[in-house]
Amino acid sequence: MARVWSHRGYRGILISLVLSGISVSSYVPLMSLYLVQTLRVSEGVVGLFALTSLASPLVGILVGRFSDRLSSRLRLLVVVGAWLALGRVAMGLAPTFGVAVVVGIAFGAFAGISAAQVFALLRELLEREGEPRQATVTSTVRTGYSLGWAVGPVLGSLLAAGLGYRTALAVSGVFVLLPLIPLLQLRQVEKGSAWASSNAQTNAETGASTSTQAGGRERGSWGSRPLWLFAVVCFLALTGESLRLTYLPILAVDRLGIPLWFFGVLVSVAPVVELVAMPAAGALADRFGLKRVLLGGLLLGAGGFAAFATSSSFVGLLVGQFCNACFIAVLLGLGVSYAQRLHPNGAGFAASVFFAAQSLTIASAGLLGAALADRPAGLPELFFTALVLNVCAAVLLPFTSRAAAPSEL
């Protein structure tokens, strides 16, 4: 943490991620309750609403590929941030479910761009600085997002309890703009030096020649097969996480009768655990390899979903949140770094593929929710499904190894 805080660039991205975590976590947990309690839709329809973000993965990948050709990512971040802020306000003002669907389609397609660009900016900064412990720095910076999630759910719940769901969603639009402030203070990261450093590191790891790397840059402009396979791994694992974000509020508040403010405390437990787990995961990855740590995280995630599926009390949900926090700390703390090592010549594209897989899980979770949520055993069945998906992801992970160093296998 001392290294991160003492470096101006790392510190700026860390603060930005704290504010981004507050922004997202004050909004996302309230959406399912807003749809059910304010717009009066069924739990199954809540799952279908997630399909409004179906275009997000494609938009994210296209923008990510385009961003690697820009001299600076900051202008792109400002434009996207302003658009998403407007979308939050529009969602809070939606008079009917139909209008909410239109708003979700128009603005949800751009939801994953900002996160991908921030981590691409971090990757290029790490390469420019010649950072020897990239996994540790990346995971430590990523804890800023978790710290924001420790504050945002409580803040969002208090706003919803005091002002109503509509006002809480509209106010969260202001929160979208706050992460831009520390980023605007960063100097432009030069792409040429970042690519050169990245190529040097990759050549050292794989034994490839510079000419081979240069020739592969054009051929691999849309990414290698291991990168896309890793995207499938992330898609499977994070589909369960999207189910948790959508249906844990309903399970806790509507089914188990936990008070809304107490639910906010429950949600905030996981980010607090992540604050410790993420730097630890980064340190372990620098020592034992990214892949081994990622595999352990996937198995912990399966345990967390098993706890949610069998819970009938607050204690069971707490255990699930703890396991889930470790899972998220590993996959979201290290997954971007792993993807970028699989596609070293395009930090923005690799990060966009990772976050596109994450965005696509909103739609897949929506379909699963629509199919299973209204069944008599719907919610436990959904979390058992998430468990199976995590196990499948763990089985596929060992096959993603093209650009990893031997210590990461």
Automatic annotation (TrEMBL):
The chain crosses the membrane at residues 12-34, 46-64, 76-94, 100-122, 143-161, 167-184, 227-248, 260-281, 293-309, 315-336, 348-370, 382-400. Residues 198-221 are annotated as: Disordered. Coiled coil: none annotated. It is found in: Cell membrane. GO terms for molecular function: transmembrane transporter activity. It is a multi-pass membrane protein. Residues 9-405 form the Major facilitator superfamily (MFS) profile domain. InterPro entries: MFS (IPR011701), MFS_dom (IPR020846), MFS_trans_sf (IPR036259). Residues 198-214 have a biased composition (Polar residues). It holds the Pfam family MFS_1. Keywords: Cell membrane, Membrane, Sugar transport, Transmembrane, Transmembrane helix, Transport. GO terms for cellular component: plasma membrane. Its main location: membrane. Belongs to the major facilitator superfamily. Set transporter family. This is SET family sugar efflux transporter-like MFS transporter. It comes from Microlunatus antarcticus.
